[in-house]
Design brief:
498 residues, alpha+beta, conserved putative lor/sdh protein from methanococcus maripaludis s2 fold, OB fold (Dihydrolipoamide Acetyltransferase, E2P), 6-stranded antiparallel beta barrel, 4-stranded antiparallel β-sheet, 8 helices, 25 strands, 27% strand, elongated, disordered C terminus
Length: 498
Protein backbone atom coordinates (compact mmCIF):
# COMPACT_ATOMS: atom_id res chain seq x y z
CA UNK A 1 0.00 0.00 0.00
CA UNK A 2 2.84 2.34 0.88
CA UNK A 3 4.47 1.59 -2.48
CA UNK A 4 1.22 2.42 -4.30
CA UNK A 5 1.04 5.76 -2.56
CA UNK A 6 4.63 6.51 -3.51
CA UNK A 7 3.91 5.72 -7.14
CA UNK A 8 0.83 7.95 -7.12
CA UNK A 9 2.80 10.77 -5.48
CA UNK A 10 5.57 10.59 -8.06
CA UNK A 11 3.02 10.55 -10.90
CA UNK A 12 1.30 13.59 -9.42
CA UNK A 13 4.58 15.56 -9.33
CA UNK A 14 5.15 14.74 -13.02
CA UNK A 15 1.63 15.23 -14.38
CA UNK A 16 0.69 18.34 -12.36
CA UNK A 17 3.07 20.76 -14.22
CA UNK A 18 2.04 19.32 -17.59
CA UNK A 19 -1.64 19.77 -16.72
CA UNK A 20 -1.03 23.38 -15.64
CA UNK A 21 0.77 24.17 -18.91
CA UNK A 22 -2.03 22.59 -20.92
CA UNK A 23 -4.64 24.61 -19.01
CA UNK A 24 -2.67 27.84 -19.64
CA UNK A 25 -2.37 27.17 -23.38
CA UNK A 26 -6.05 26.36 -23.60
CA UNK A 27 -6.98 29.54 -21.74
CA UNK A 28 -4.78 31.64 -24.03
CA UNK A 29 -6.32 30.12 -27.12
CA UNK A 30 -9.81 30.83 -25.81
CA UNK A 31 -9.42 34.22 -24.09
CA UNK A 32 -6.13 35.63 -25.48
CA UNK A 33 -7.16 36.33 -29.09
CA UNK A 34 -8.31 39.81 -30.07
CA UNK A 35 -11.98 39.86 -30.98
CA UNK A 36 -12.63 40.62 -34.62
CA UNK A 37 -14.00 44.06 -35.26
CA UNK A 38 -17.05 43.86 -37.45
CA UNK A 39 -16.68 45.85 -40.67
CA UNK A 40 -18.21 49.24 -40.57
CA UNK A 41 -21.40 49.27 -42.51
CA UNK A 42 -21.58 51.90 -45.18
CA UNK A 43 -25.01 53.33 -45.56
CA UNK A 44 -25.55 53.86 -49.24
CA UNK A 45 -28.64 55.95 -48.70
CA UNK A 46 -26.67 58.60 -46.75
CA UNK A 47 -24.98 61.43 -48.68
CA UNK A 48 -21.54 62.35 -47.30
CA UNK A 49 -20.79 66.06 -46.96
CA UNK A 50 -17.31 66.93 -48.25
CA UNK A 51 -15.14 69.92 -48.95
CA UNK A 52 -13.39 70.14 -52.30
CA UNK A 53 -10.90 72.18 -54.26
CA UNK A 54 -10.47 72.68 -57.96
CA UNK A 55 -7.72 70.78 -59.79
CA UNK A 56 -5.43 73.31 -61.44
CA UNK A 57 -3.15 72.87 -64.43
CA UNK A 58 0.49 73.49 -63.51
CA UNK A 59 3.25 74.63 -65.86
CA UNK A 60 5.71 72.08 -64.46
CA UNK A 61 8.16 74.68 -63.15
CA UNK A 62 9.41 74.31 -59.60
CA UNK A 63 12.59 74.68 -57.60
CA UNK A 64 14.54 71.96 -55.82
CA UNK A 65 16.17 73.39 -52.69
CA UNK A 66 19.09 71.59 -51.03
CA UNK A 67 21.30 72.24 -48.04
CA UNK A 68 24.96 72.61 -48.89
CA UNK A 69 28.36 73.60 -47.54
CA UNK A 70 30.76 75.88 -49.41
CA UNK A 71 34.16 74.28 -49.95
CA UNK A 72 37.40 75.20 -51.65
CA UNK A 73 37.74 74.21 -55.28
CA UNK A 74 41.32 73.15 -54.56
CA UNK A 75 43.93 73.46 -51.81
CA UNK A 76 47.60 73.52 -52.72
CA UNK A 77 50.25 72.45 -50.19
CA UNK A 78 53.59 74.04 -51.09
CA UNK A 79 56.65 72.12 -49.88
CA UNK A 80 60.31 73.11 -49.67
CA UNK A 81 62.22 72.13 -52.81
CA UNK A 82 65.65 72.72 -51.29
CA UNK A 83 67.11 72.20 -47.83
CA UNK A 84 68.31 74.98 -45.58
CA UNK A 85 67.46 77.45 -42.85
CA UNK A 86 64.57 79.88 -43.23
CA UNK A 87 66.37 83.22 -43.15
CA UNK A 88 63.46 85.55 -43.95
CA UNK A 89 59.67 85.45 -43.68
CA UNK A 90 57.45 88.37 -44.69
CA UNK A 91 54.65 89.62 -42.47
CA UNK A 92 52.00 88.68 -45.01
CA UNK A 93 53.03 85.02 -44.73
CA UNK A 94 50.51 84.31 -41.96
CA UNK A 95 47.33 82.21 -41.92
CA UNK A 96 44.30 84.13 -43.13
CA UNK A 97 46.15 86.57 -45.40
CA UNK A 98 45.34 86.78 -49.09
CA UNK A 99 48.35 86.38 -51.38
CA UNK A 100 48.64 86.83 -55.11
CA UNK A 101 50.14 84.34 -57.50
CA UNK A 102 53.95 84.67 -57.48
CA UNK A 103 54.03 86.86 -54.37
CA UNK A 104 57.26 86.53 -52.35
CA UNK A 105 56.65 84.93 -48.93
CA UNK A 106 59.89 83.55 -47.43
CA UNK A 107 63.53 82.72 -48.20
CA UNK A 108 65.72 79.69 -47.47
CA UNK A 109 69.45 80.30 -46.88
CA UNK A 110 70.93 80.64 -50.42
CA UNK A 111 74.67 80.63 -49.45
CA UNK A 112 75.47 77.04 -50.42
CA UNK A 113 73.59 77.35 -53.69
CA UNK A 114 75.37 80.60 -54.59
CA UNK A 115 78.72 78.91 -53.98
CA UNK A 116 77.67 75.96 -56.11
CA UNK A 117 76.73 78.30 -58.95
CA UNK A 118 80.11 80.04 -58.73
CA UNK A 119 81.97 76.70 -58.70
CA UNK A 120 80.18 75.46 -61.78
CA UNK A 121 80.76 78.74 -63.58
CA UNK A 122 84.51 78.42 -62.94
CA UNK A 123 84.37 74.79 -64.03
CA UNK A 124 82.73 75.82 -67.30
CA UNK A 125 85.39 78.48 -67.87
CA UNK A 126 88.09 75.85 -67.31
CA UNK A 127 86.35 73.51 -69.78
CA UNK A 128 86.27 76.29 -72.36
CA UNK A 129 90.01 76.91 -71.84
CA UNK A 130 90.73 73.20 -72.32
CA UNK A 131 88.69 73.23 -75.50
CA UNK A 132 90.69 76.20 -76.79
CA UNK A 133 93.93 74.35 -76.01
CA UNK A 134 92.62 71.32 -77.88
CA UNK A 135 91.85 73.48 -80.89
CA UNK A 136 95.46 74.78 -80.89
CA UNK A 137 96.83 71.26 -80.60
CA UNK A 138 94.61 70.10 -83.44
CA UNK A 139 95.82 72.96 -85.66
CA UNK A 140 99.50 72.24 -84.87
CA UNK A 141 99.07 68.50 -85.41
CA UNK A 142 97.37 69.08 -88.74
CA UNK A 143 100.40 71.21 -89.81
CA UNK A 144 102.76 68.42 -88.76
CA UNK A 145 100.70 65.94 -90.75
CA UNK A 146 101.13 68.09 -93.88
CA UNK A 147 104.90 68.15 -93.35
CA UNK A 148 104.97 64.41 -92.70
CA UNK A 149 103.05 63.78 -95.90
CA UNK A 150 105.61 65.81 -97.89
CA UNK A 151 108.43 63.84 -96.24
CA UNK A 152 106.73 60.58 -97.17
CA UNK A 153 106.43 61.77 -100.77
CA UNK A 154 110.13 62.71 -100.90
CA UNK A 155 111.22 59.37 -99.42
CA UNK A 156 109.09 57.50 -101.93
CA UNK A 157 110.67 59.42 -104.81
CA UNK A 158 114.15 58.72 -103.40
CA UNK A 159 113.36 55.00 -103.14
CA UNK A 160 112.18 54.97 -106.72
CA UNK A 161 115.43 56.58 -107.94
CA UNK A 162 117.55 54.11 -106.01
CA UNK A 163 115.61 51.21 -107.48
CA UNK A 164 116.24 52.55 -111.01
CA UNK A 165 119.94 52.92 -110.28
CA UNK A 166 120.03 49.35 -108.99
CA UNK A 167 118.54 48.24 -112.30
CA UNK A 168 121.32 49.93 -114.25
CA UNK A 169 123.97 48.72 -111.79
CA UNK A 170 124.79 52.24 -110.62
CA UNK A 171 123.81 51.73 -106.98
CA UNK A 172 124.43 49.20 -104.25
CA UNK A 173 122.07 47.16 -102.14
CA UNK A 174 123.13 49.12 -99.07
CA UNK A 175 121.88 52.34 -100.59
CA UNK A 176 118.59 50.60 -101.52
CA UNK A 177 118.09 49.38 -97.96
CA UNK A 178 118.83 52.84 -96.61
CA UNK A 179 116.25 54.41 -98.96
CA UNK A 180 113.63 51.86 -97.94
CA UNK A 181 114.31 52.52 -94.26
CA UNK A 182 113.93 56.27 -94.71
CA UNK A 183 110.65 55.80 -96.60
CA UNK A 184 109.35 53.49 -93.84
CA UNK A 185 110.37 55.95 -91.15
CA UNK A 186 108.55 58.79 -92.93
CA UNK A 187 105.32 56.74 -93.22
CA UNK A 188 105.61 55.72 -89.54
CA UNK A 189 106.03 59.34 -88.51
CA UNK A 190 102.95 60.33 -90.54
CA UNK A 191 100.89 57.57 -88.93
CA UNK A 192 102.02 58.60 -85.44
CA UNK A 193 101.05 62.23 -86.02
CA UNK A 194 97.64 61.20 -87.43
CA UNK A 195 97.03 59.05 -84.32
CA UNK A 196 97.92 62.02 -82.16
CA UNK A 197 95.38 64.13 -84.07
CA UNK A 198 92.66 61.49 -83.54
CA UNK A 199 93.50 61.37 -79.82
CA UNK A 200 93.28 65.14 -79.51
CA UNK A 201 89.92 65.22 -81.31
CA UNK A 202 88.57 62.49 -79.03
CA UNK A 203 89.79 64.40 -76.01
CA UNK A 204 88.02 67.47 -77.37
CA UNK A 205 84.76 65.50 -77.57
CA UNK A 206 85.18 64.50 -73.92
CA UNK A 207 85.91 68.11 -72.97
CA UNK A 208 82.77 69.27 -74.81
CA UNK A 209 80.69 66.63 -72.98
CA UNK A 210 82.18 67.73 -69.67
CA UNK A 211 81.31 71.32 -70.53
CA UNK A 212 77.71 70.37 -71.33
CA UNK A 213 77.49 68.47 -68.05
CA UNK A 214 78.80 71.47 -66.17
CA UNK A 215 76.29 73.69 -67.96
CA UNK A 216 73.47 71.32 -67.00
CA UNK A 217 74.63 71.26 -63.39
CA UNK A 218 74.82 75.05 -63.50
CA UNK A 219 71.21 75.26 -64.67
CA UNK A 220 70.18 72.94 -61.84
CA UNK A 221 72.15 75.00 -59.33
CA UNK A 222 70.57 78.22 -60.61
CA UNK A 223 67.10 76.63 -60.32
CA UNK A 224 67.86 75.52 -56.76
CA UNK A 225 69.13 79.02 -56.02
CA UNK A 226 65.86 80.44 -57.36
CA UNK A 227 63.89 77.99 -55.22
CA UNK A 228 65.38 79.51 -52.09
CA UNK A 229 62.98 82.43 -52.64
CA UNK A 230 59.54 80.85 -52.02
CA UNK A 231 56.54 82.46 -53.70
CA UNK A 232 52.81 81.71 -53.66
CA UNK A 233 51.96 79.09 -56.33
CA UNK A 234 48.37 80.34 -56.76
CA UNK A 235 46.28 83.32 -55.75
CA UNK A 236 44.32 82.60 -52.61
CA UNK A 237 44.17 82.66 -48.84
CA UNK A 238 46.81 81.04 -46.66
CA UNK A 239 45.23 78.34 -44.52
CA UNK A 240 48.24 77.11 -42.56
CA UNK A 241 51.91 78.13 -42.35
CA UNK A 242 54.19 75.41 -40.98
CA UNK A 243 57.54 77.24 -40.57
CA UNK A 244 58.95 80.27 -38.86
CA UNK A 245 62.09 82.29 -39.42
CA UNK A 246 65.08 80.29 -38.17
CA UNK A 247 63.57 76.84 -38.79
CA UNK A 248 65.58 74.30 -40.77
CA UNK A 249 63.67 72.54 -43.52
CA UNK A 250 64.49 69.62 -45.76
CA UNK A 251 63.40 69.10 -49.33
CA UNK A 252 59.78 67.90 -49.24
CA UNK A 253 58.85 69.48 -45.89
CA UNK A 254 55.49 71.36 -46.13
CA UNK A 255 55.79 75.12 -45.82
CA UNK A 256 52.21 76.41 -46.17
CA UNK A 257 48.82 75.53 -47.62
CA UNK A 258 46.92 77.88 -49.91
CA UNK A 259 43.20 77.91 -50.56
CA UNK A 260 42.28 78.75 -54.16
CA UNK A 261 39.71 81.54 -53.94
CA UNK A 262 39.20 82.12 -57.66
CA UNK A 263 36.66 79.27 -57.81
CA UNK A 264 34.50 77.70 -55.09
CA UNK A 265 32.43 74.53 -54.80
CA UNK A 266 29.35 73.63 -52.80
CA UNK A 267 28.88 70.10 -51.50
CA UNK A 268 25.26 68.94 -51.52
CA UNK A 269 23.25 65.73 -51.73
CA UNK A 270 20.43 64.92 -54.14
CA UNK A 271 17.75 62.35 -53.53
CA UNK A 272 17.19 59.92 -56.37
CA UNK A 273 13.78 61.41 -57.20
CA UNK A 274 15.34 64.88 -57.32
CA UNK A 275 18.13 63.62 -59.54
CA UNK A 276 15.45 62.16 -61.81
CA UNK A 277 14.10 65.66 -62.53
CA UNK A 278 17.61 66.91 -63.29
CA UNK A 279 18.14 64.05 -65.73
CA UNK A 280 14.71 64.62 -67.27
CA UNK A 281 15.30 68.32 -67.83
CA UNK A 282 18.80 67.71 -69.22
CA UNK A 283 17.44 64.98 -71.52
CA UNK A 284 14.81 67.24 -73.01
CA UNK A 285 17.40 69.99 -73.56
CA UNK A 286 19.78 67.57 -75.29
CA UNK A 287 16.99 66.36 -77.60
CA UNK A 288 16.31 69.97 -78.56
CA UNK A 289 19.99 70.35 -79.47
CA UNK A 290 20.06 67.14 -81.56
CA UNK A 291 20.96 63.50 -81.04
CA UNK A 292 24.44 63.24 -79.43
CA UNK A 293 27.24 61.11 -80.84
CA UNK A 294 28.38 57.88 -79.19
CA UNK A 295 31.17 59.53 -77.17
CA UNK A 296 28.90 62.38 -76.13
CA UNK A 297 26.17 59.90 -75.21
CA UNK A 298 28.58 57.94 -73.00
CA UNK A 299 29.72 61.15 -71.29
CA UNK A 300 26.07 62.14 -70.80
CA UNK A 301 25.35 58.82 -69.13
CA UNK A 302 28.36 58.93 -66.80
CA UNK A 303 28.54 62.66 -66.02
CA UNK A 304 26.13 64.81 -64.04
CA UNK A 305 24.15 67.19 -66.29
CA UNK A 306 25.51 70.73 -66.03
CA UNK A 307 22.36 72.52 -64.86
CA UNK A 308 22.50 76.19 -63.79
CA UNK A 309 21.72 76.67 -60.10
CA UNK A 310 21.54 79.47 -57.56
CA UNK A 311 23.53 79.44 -54.33
CA UNK A 312 21.99 81.44 -51.46
CA UNK A 313 23.40 82.41 -48.07
CA UNK A 314 20.78 83.75 -45.67
CA UNK A 315 21.72 86.29 -43.01
CA UNK A 316 19.20 88.32 -41.01
CA UNK A 317 16.44 87.56 -43.46
CA UNK A 318 18.50 88.64 -46.48
CA UNK A 319 19.63 86.30 -49.26
CA UNK A 320 23.09 86.73 -50.76
CA UNK A 321 23.07 84.99 -54.12
CA UNK A 322 25.73 83.52 -56.41
CA UNK A 323 25.38 81.88 -59.82
CA UNK A 324 26.64 78.31 -60.00
CA UNK A 325 26.43 75.18 -62.06
CA UNK A 326 25.77 71.57 -61.07
CA UNK A 327 29.15 70.27 -62.18
CA UNK A 328 29.92 66.70 -61.07
CA UNK A 329 29.24 63.75 -58.81
CA UNK A 330 31.15 63.70 -55.55
CA UNK A 331 32.03 60.01 -55.78
CA UNK A 332 30.84 57.08 -57.84
CA UNK A 333 27.34 56.33 -56.56
CA UNK A 334 24.86 56.46 -53.70
CA UNK A 335 25.97 57.25 -50.19
CA UNK A 336 25.26 54.00 -48.26
CA UNK A 337 24.47 55.93 -45.07
CA UNK A 338 21.95 58.47 -46.45
CA UNK A 339 20.97 56.77 -49.74
CA UNK A 340 21.52 60.05 -51.54
CA UNK A 341 23.80 61.08 -54.40
CA UNK A 342 26.64 63.41 -53.32
CA UNK A 343 27.12 66.21 -55.85
CA UNK A 344 29.26 69.31 -56.29
CA UNK A 345 28.17 72.76 -57.47
CA UNK A 346 30.86 74.95 -59.00
CA UNK A 347 30.80 78.72 -58.48
CA UNK A 348 33.15 80.28 -61.04
CA UNK A 349 32.81 83.85 -59.74
CA UNK A 350 32.59 83.69 -55.93
CA UNK A 351 33.19 87.44 -55.60
CA UNK A 352 30.19 88.38 -57.76
CA UNK A 353 27.36 88.38 -55.22
CA UNK A 354 23.80 89.68 -55.60
CA UNK A 355 22.14 91.14 -52.51
CA UNK A 356 18.43 91.31 -51.74
CA UNK A 357 16.52 92.87 -48.88
CA UNK A 358 16.71 96.13 -46.99
CA UNK A 359 18.52 97.51 -44.00
CA UNK A 360 22.14 97.14 -42.99
CA UNK A 361 22.23 93.45 -43.89
CA UNK A 362 20.95 94.29 -47.37
CA UNK A 363 23.53 97.03 -47.98
CA UNK A 364 26.55 95.15 -46.63
CA UNK A 365 27.38 91.95 -48.49
CA UNK A 366 30.17 89.45 -47.90
CA UNK A 367 33.02 90.11 -50.36
CA UNK A 368 33.11 86.48 -51.49
CA UNK A 369 31.71 83.01 -50.91
CA UNK A 370 33.73 81.78 -47.94
CA UNK A 371 34.66 78.18 -47.31
CA UNK A 372 32.47 76.62 -44.61
CA UNK A 373 29.33 78.67 -45.28
CA UNK A 374 26.07 76.76 -44.88
CA UNK A 375 24.12 77.68 -48.00
CA UNK A 376 21.02 76.73 -49.95
CA UNK A 377 21.31 75.32 -53.46
CA UNK A 378 18.28 76.11 -55.61
CA UNK A 379 17.90 74.13 -58.82
CA UNK A 380 15.19 75.51 -61.16
CA UNK A 381 13.36 72.68 -62.93
CA UNK A 382 11.24 73.17 -66.04
CA UNK A 383 9.60 69.79 -66.48
CA UNK A 384 8.68 68.78 -70.05
CA UNK A 385 5.84 66.63 -68.65
CA UNK A 386 2.31 68.05 -68.18
CA UNK A 387 1.40 68.35 -64.50
CA UNK A 388 -1.56 69.10 -62.24
CA UNK A 389 -1.65 70.98 -58.96
CA UNK A 390 -3.85 69.91 -56.01
CA UNK A 391 -3.90 70.72 -52.27
CA UNK A 392 -1.66 68.46 -50.23
CA UNK A 393 -4.50 67.21 -47.92
CA UNK A 394 -6.19 65.73 -51.00
CA UNK A 395 -3.45 63.10 -51.34
CA UNK A 396 -4.54 59.96 -49.47
CA UNK A 397 -2.43 56.99 -48.32
CA UNK A 398 -1.13 54.72 -51.09
CA UNK A 399 -1.06 57.77 -53.41
CA UNK A 400 -4.83 57.87 -54.00
CA UNK A 401 -7.21 60.80 -54.39
CA UNK A 402 -10.99 61.16 -54.13
CA UNK A 403 -12.60 63.09 -56.94
CA UNK A 404 -16.25 63.94 -57.50
CA UNK A 405 -17.72 62.72 -60.77
CA UNK A 406 -21.45 62.89 -61.47
CA UNK A 407 -22.19 63.52 -57.78
CA UNK A 408 -20.37 60.39 -56.63
CA UNK A 409 -16.96 59.72 -55.18
CA UNK A 410 -14.34 58.14 -57.45
CA UNK A 411 -11.07 56.74 -56.08
CA UNK A 412 -8.18 57.25 -58.48
CA UNK A 413 -4.48 56.36 -58.15
CA UNK A 414 -2.09 59.22 -58.83
CA UNK A 415 1.65 59.71 -59.19
CA UNK A 416 2.94 62.46 -56.92
CA UNK A 417 5.79 64.14 -58.75
CA UNK A 418 6.66 66.86 -56.25
CA UNK A 419 5.42 68.41 -53.01
CA UNK A 420 5.67 72.20 -53.01
CA UNK A 421 4.60 73.71 -49.68
CA UNK A 422 0.86 73.04 -49.19
CA UNK A 423 0.41 71.74 -52.73
CA UNK A 424 1.25 68.54 -54.58
CA UNK A 425 2.23 68.31 -58.23
CA UNK A 426 0.91 65.27 -60.10
CA UNK A 427 1.94 63.88 -63.44
CA UNK A 428 -0.93 63.72 -65.91
CA UNK A 429 -2.21 60.27 -66.86
CA UNK A 430 -4.35 59.44 -69.86
CA UNK A 431 -7.28 58.09 -67.80
CA UNK A 432 -6.63 60.07 -64.63
CA UNK A 433 -7.49 63.48 -63.26
CA UNK A 434 -8.41 66.39 -65.47
CA UNK A 435 -8.04 70.13 -64.86
CA UNK A 436 -11.17 71.77 -63.49
CA UNK A 437 -12.46 68.72 -61.63
CA UNK A 438 -13.32 68.95 -57.93
CA UNK A 439 -11.09 66.94 -55.62
CA UNK A 440 -12.07 66.10 -52.04
CA UNK A 441 -9.87 67.64 -49.35
CA UNK A 442 -11.85 66.79 -46.21
CA UNK A 443 -11.48 63.45 -44.36
CA UNK A 444 -14.09 60.69 -44.48
CA UNK A 445 -14.52 57.82 -42.03
CA UNK A 446 -15.61 55.19 -44.55
CA UNK A 447 -15.04 55.45 -48.28
CA UNK A 448 -16.07 53.33 -51.23
CA UNK A 449 -15.99 53.95 -54.93
CA UNK A 450 -19.32 55.30 -56.19
CA UNK A 451 -20.72 56.58 -52.89
CA UNK A 452 -22.89 59.70 -53.04
CA UNK A 453 -21.29 62.95 -51.82
CA UNK A 454 -22.35 66.56 -51.50
CA UNK A 455 -19.87 69.35 -52.16
CA UNK A 456 -20.38 72.12 -49.60
CA UNK A 457 -17.41 74.14 -50.82
CA UNK A 458 -19.13 75.19 -54.04
CA UNK A 459 -22.36 75.93 -52.15
CA UNK A 460 -20.47 78.05 -49.60
CA UNK A 461 -18.62 79.95 -52.32
CA UNK A 462 -21.83 80.68 -54.17
CA UNK A 463 -23.48 81.80 -50.91
CA UNK A 464 -20.60 84.15 -50.11
CA UNK A 465 -20.77 85.66 -53.60
CA UNK A 466 -24.53 86.06 -53.27
CA UNK A 467 -24.26 87.70 -49.84
CA UNK A 468 -21.63 90.09 -51.08
CA UNK A 469 -23.80 91.02 -54.02
CA UNK A 470 -27.01 91.47 -51.96
CA UNK A 471 -25.56 92.85 -48.73
CA UNK A 472 -26.39 96.47 -49.62
CA UNK A 473 -28.29 97.89 -52.58
CA UNK A 474 -26.18 100.03 -54.84
CA UNK A 475 -28.48 103.07 -54.44
CA UNK A 476 -28.41 102.95 -50.63
CA UNK A 477 -24.63 102.46 -50.69
CA UNK A 478 -24.17 105.50 -52.96
CA UNK A 479 -26.48 107.63 -50.82
CA UNK A 480 -24.66 106.71 -47.61
CA UNK A 481 -21.29 107.39 -49.24
CA UNK A 482 -22.47 110.85 -50.35
CA UNK A 483 -23.77 111.63 -46.83
CA UNK A 484 -20.47 110.61 -45.23
CA UNK A 485 -18.52 112.72 -47.73
CA UNK A 486 -20.63 115.83 -47.04
CA UNK A 487 -20.21 115.34 -43.27
CA UNK A 488 -16.42 115.15 -43.62
CA UNK A 489 -16.40 118.30 -45.79
CA UNK A 490 -18.46 120.30 -43.29
CA UNK A 491 -16.15 119.18 -40.49
CA UNK A 492 -13.08 120.36 -42.37
CA UNK A 493 -14.71 123.75 -43.06
CA UNK A 494 -15.49 124.14 -39.36
CA UNK A 495 -11.92 123.47 -38.38
CA UNK A 496 -10.48 125.97 -40.91
CA UNK A 497 -12.74 128.92 -39.81
CA UNK A 498 -11.33 131.06 -36.95
Amino acid sequence: MTRLWNILGESFHVLAPIAMIAIGIGGFMVFGQRPETPPREIKHDVVAVVETAEIEEADGSFTIELDGVALSYRQVTHAAQVAGEVTEKVENCRPGHYVGEGEYLLEIDPTNFELEVERLQVQIEQAEANLSESDVEIANTESLIELAKEDVTLQKDNLTRVERLIGRGASTDTQLDAARKQELTARNTLRTIENQLATIKQRKISLEAAKKLSQTLLKRAEIDLGRTKVTAPIAGTLITVEVEEGDYVKAGDPLFRTNDSSTMEVSCQLRVEELYWVWLQAGSMSLMNGVPADAELLATQLELPNVPVEVAFEFRGVDYLWDGILSRYDGTGLDPATRTVPCRVRVDEPTKVRVGGEGVAGRVAPPTLFSGMYVKVRIPIDSPLPMLKIPLPAVRPNDEVWVIRDGTLAILPVEVARIEGDSALLTVKQDGLRPGERIITSPLAAVEDGMAVKDVSQSRDQAVMTNNATARPPAEFSQQLETETNAETSTEDTEVQP
